[in-house]
Write a structure and sequence with these properties.
Oligomer: single chain
Number of strands: 6
Largest sheet: 6 strands, parallel
Number of helices: 10
Order of helices and strands: HHHHHEHEHEEHEHEH
Shape: globular
Distance between the termini: 39 Å
Length: 297
Amino acid sequence: MAPRPERGTFRFDKYFLVMEELRASGADIREHAPDPMPREWLEAVHCPDYVEQVFTSTVPREKERRIGFPVTPAIASRVRHTNGGTWLAAQLAMKNGYAANSAAGSHHALYDTGAGYCVFNDLAVSANRLIAQGDAHRILIVDLDVHQGDGTASLTALRDDVFTLSIHAEKNFPARKARSNRDIGLPDGTDDDAYMEVLDRNLPPLFREFAPDLVLYQAGVDPHEHDKLGRLALTDDGITRRNRFVVGEARKRGLPIASALGGGYGADQRAVAARHAASMLAMADENRLYPVATLDR
């Protein structure tokens, strides 16, 4: 069992509770256990010295403070598996249209350090590997977590085959933003309709302009009005509308889309887990409206 941080709002039991909520829903879900992300895949994106520190549980204290918890052997194993889950979700999406990783979405992890409860950046690592092995040629990363995806933006900044879109609360973490391909900072208190207007104005044109053949979606529920670390005001219905819209825009174009869990914080972990589970079930339901299409290999 991974240790919990002494301070802060991150709770590792959220992941278990999400799976409990999914299983209790009665929905027709299929569970898959990912393999750990291979070391060479991680080193293709992250600094090999940092990867070594994580694998050997020798991450310096200043980096652990930046991450938010100690990187023990149990944590190292956990993050390798949760990172592997995003790559596996992409593989399954190419067969089924949509698949979800019930963990990860570690979009703050940088080249040589973790940050913001993120150790390795599963979105950047998975995108790099999918392109390297020919599963995709152009990947759109849609990051709708309430916090800007600074790590993902930094790690993919020099690529022309990965496009990052981040729609986030402008006044939220991180204080110093990176530069995504497209950043949209929202004012505090943005509600459902205002949020959807911004999303509708920006996402569909990207499919035409960038022409991706696969989408990775950071589906954090922390824009919710009751999230402890949010600053926005989306309702349950707003989160559902957002998720259905993103999946629908991808699927009506025949594109596979894989989601990662992302952020969601609060004193009532069951309520947060329920939001995550509801998000995945809504996206899976939206996917059923479209015929399955796979990428050419």
